[in-house]
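Exam revision sheet. Question 4 asks you to relate a sequence to its structure. Input first:
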Amino acid sequence: MATGRASAPGAALACGLGLALLTGPLAAGCAGSGTTGGTAARSSPATHTGAPSPRTTSPGELCTRVVAYWSRRQLKDDTVGDYQEMGLSDGQYDILRDVVHAARAELGRGHRGAADRLIDRKAREGCAQWYRTGGPGKGPWH
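Answer key, structure tokens:
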């Protein structure tokens, strides 16, 4: 019994130092200190919860989304100003101008749905081509 009591202050000190130095899940392991067979000692850090892994958005995908968004806004004459105010690079703005030009031609023929599909397709193609050739590597705004 005396042995169990002697280790408890040491565990409490280690846990106190751990809490002072660590935050988050690592400090949570101190909850079982001083007890026999605590859940922290038995749980596996590699336990799979069944939740999907987070997914990141590729630069090309992000480019496609912003170009399509601002293309639709420009077709409605609902934009905020120049390309920098839209948060676009010079290269993305070049793609946007091509997309909007083609979409306006489609709208002129009376094809609203076709114009919308064309925006998505041309933004995706333009961004894919831009990133295939290096993307924004030619200065801060290209």
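Marking note for examiners. Residues 112-132 form the longest helix (21 residues).
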